[in-house]
Specification:
It is built from 16 helices and 27 strands. The protein is of the alpha/beta class. Strands 17, 18, 19, 20, 21, 22, 23 and 24 form an eight-stranded mixed beta sheet that branches. Strands 7-10-6-13-15-16-25 form a seven-stranded parallel beta sheet, sandwiched between helices. It is globular, with a radius of gyration of 25 Å. The structure holds 2-acetamido-2-deoxy-beta-D-glucopyranose (NAG) (3 copies).
Length: 588
């Protein structure tokens, strides 16, 4: 096992080189952002800015060059980010006291699709105590006007709070008490907003899941209608926007940790990670979380959505809380009903109501757009661009693979029934009436199409079923072992992260079609990006009840009281669920 781990690591380290923002080796003189990491902040009087400036001057030769090159001087640990040539990188690497020179690189959000909604019943930690707890999130920003972030009933921020709210057109209140943003490469693409405001939706989801206020009557087109709320609705939120449409830069992530420590957050929630396993001293989350821990702050992080393969876990440093995603007792389904009365239940968060009206049903293979170069072999999967709109218009199309529905939608189809056995434990939402059935049911539908003169069908509005198997860890949730230290057990815990109702940015698409023009305030979504803030909320809940507990004590309380999940449902046992499902009320 150790050997496999090492080999995986070596492979990933090689691939990692390809991810660097600075991998253009051709131009050695060009200055690129690097992090020079030197460990703890020295004891006693220490001016980070002055120290880093003089170190830079000693290598770059001139004080003015040093000034130009410096991007961040981190103050709560000894490190800085600066634009350096390869020769300068070499000099710093050989310098006494330098642990690592880390090229700026891109980390990614841990979302396949997510959500939120919480299982904590009316909490017995008083609102006043909750209000003393601040959760800092490193994410895509937040939508400050969202109903989930109204501050009714909340007093002024706790006196320890030193954070701030920066950026145009972004206002904090007594719920969102901090908002900062970081973009060291100055890369802004279409849709990126230069403020802590969220255009992607991810940060709005994670924040509302951890600490959103109670909002009754929240739903996704009537589905999952109920009260949406965070794990600890009385807690405060501080947003550190480090992720943009290109991803999340390492130097920015460290800057956010540095500020969060100084601002006075209690818990840090990070639903993003490296794309490949890297050693702890190259991983900005591992480094940031390490120093946060020394200042008494626990970092809760997502395990990643690269499961079910072994060694797929991200954020595996021993001092972070690593969270898997598991199901709740609710499943989203939509029925396909044929003209002969046969009905098939499929997975889908179907927001479209056809009022049981039937439409002609065709097989995707019979509707290839030959002039677009498509054939029956492509159009039977209903791949985007492969469909002939003359054949598809106004019809329901049967497709032989799970797809996002845009193939049928763009050819003016009415709806789609997709047969696929790959994904069976969570549902997607689509831009048109759609459902995903098993391949064996698919054969029955194909048979009906072939043997019937005028085959017709309809797709019913989505509904929810009780899932008696819950909780179990979902297929996409990343698995241990720990890829760099296989003898240290990871993951730590699992928390709800499948088909969860969560706050949504009104300018983010409401289905898996990125061009879906509809706008919603709540959505239903899956991912470890969503289970992580559940655990962050639970950690904040413990911290509110026991302000003097160390990060290790909070983590221990959560792990030792976790509800044991059924090992028979998990081939990979603890590598899937760690110590079990969070149980916040037991933890306090
Ligand atoms: C501020 O943001 C809101 C929400 O996107 C937008 O409607 C408004 O026009 C913005 N105002 C300015 C001055 O940019
Ligand atoms: C949600 O439920 C509430 C209370 O039962 C009801 O008044 C409301 O109309 C429902 N909303 C939707 C969109 O179905
Ligand atoms: C076939 O594909 C071409 C190229 O994408 C497109 O322009 C055309 O409208 C399509 N034809 C039909 C009937 O869908």
């Amino acid at each position: 096992m150790v050997k496999t781990g090492l080999m995986t690591w070596l492979l990933y380290s090689t691939l990692f080189a390809a991810l660097l923002l600075n991998s253009d080796a051709a131009n050695a003189d060009e200055r690129k952002v690097h992090i020079v990491y030197m460990g703890d902040r020295p004891k006693g009087d220490f001016s980070a800015k002055a120290t880093h400036h003089s170190l830079l001057t000693s290598v770059l030769g001139r004080s003015s060059s040093a000034q130009e090159s410096l991007v961040y001087s981190y103050g709560n640990f000894n490190a800085f980010a600066a634009k350096l040539t390869e020769e300068e990188v070499q000099k710093f690497s050989e310098m006494d006291g330098v642990v690592r020179v880390i090229p700026n690189h891109i980390l990614k959000l841990h979302t396949t699709r997510s959500w939120d909604f919480l299982g904590l019943s009316q909490s017995n930690v008083g609102a006043q105590l909750q209000g003393d707890v601040v959760i800092g999130l490193l994410d895509t920003g937040i939508w400050p006007e969202h109903e989930s972030f109204n501050d009714q009933g909340l007093g002024a921020p706790p006196s320890k709070w030193k954070g701030t709210c920066q950026g145009a057109n972004f206002t904090c209140n007594n719920k969102i008490i901090g908002g900062r943003y970081y973009n060291s490469e100055n890369w802004y693409y279409e849709g990126d907003l230069e403020s802590p405001r969220d255009s992607e939706g991810h940060g709005t989801r994670t924040s509302s899941t951890a600490a959103g206020d109670r909002v009754p009557g929240a739903s996704y087109y009537g589905l999952a209608n109920g009260t949406a709320r965070g794990g600890i609705p009385g807690a405060r939120i501080a947003m550190y926007k480090v992720c943009w449409s290109f991803g999340c830069g390492a130097a920015d992530i460290l800057a956010a940790f540095d500020d969060a420590i100084a601002d006075g957050v209690d818990i840090i929630s990070v639903s993003l990670g490296s794309v490949f396993p890297v050693p702890y001293d190259v991983d900005p989350i591992a480094i940031g979380a390490f120093h946060a821990m020394k200042y008494g702050i626990l970092t809760s992080s997502s395990a990643g959505n690269s499961g079910p393969w072994p060694y797929s876990v991200s954020n595996y440093a021993p001092w972070t809380l690593t969270v898997a995603a598991s199901t709740i007792d609710r499943k989203f389904v939509a029925k396909a009903v044929l003209g002969n009365g046969q009905a098939f239940t499929g997975l889908s968060i179907n927001s479209f109501e056809l009022y049981r009206k039937t439409y002609p049903l065709i097989w995707g293979g019979d509707s290839a757009n030959y002039s677009a170069g498509a054939s029956q072999d492509l159009s039977k999967y209903c791949i985007t661009g492969s469909m002939n709109s003359y054949k598809v218009e106004g019809k329901i199309v049967f497709c032989e693979v799970l797809w996002d529905g845009t193939g049928v939608l763009l050819a003016n189809g009415m709806g789609t029934i997709m047969a696929d056995d790959e994904i069976t434990d969570f549902a997607f939402n689509y831009p048109l009436p759609a459902t995903q059935i098993s391949t064996s049911d698919g054969e029955k539908i194909l048979d009906y199409i072939k043997t019937t003169e005028n085959p017709i069908a309809t797709i019913l509005l989505g509904e929810t079923l009780t899932d008696y198997m819950a909780p179990y860890v979902v297929s996409f949730s990343s698995r241990g072992p720990n890829p760099v230290a296989p003898d240290i057990l990871k993951l730590d815990l699992t928390a709800p992260g499948v088909d969860i109702l969560t706050a949504w940015s009104p300018i983010a698409p409401p289905s898996i079609d990125w061009e879906d023009p509809r706008s919603v305030d709540y959505n239903i979504i899956s991912g470890t990006s969503m289970s992580c803030p559940h655990a962050s909320g639970a950690a904040a809940y413990v911290k509110a009840a026991h302000p003097d507990w160390s990060p290790a004590a909070v983590k221990s309380a959560l792990m030792t009281t976790a509800t044991v999940v059924d090992p028979n449902k998990h081939e990979d046992l603890e590598f899937a669920y760690g110590s079990g499902q969070i149980n916040p009320t037991q933890a306090i």
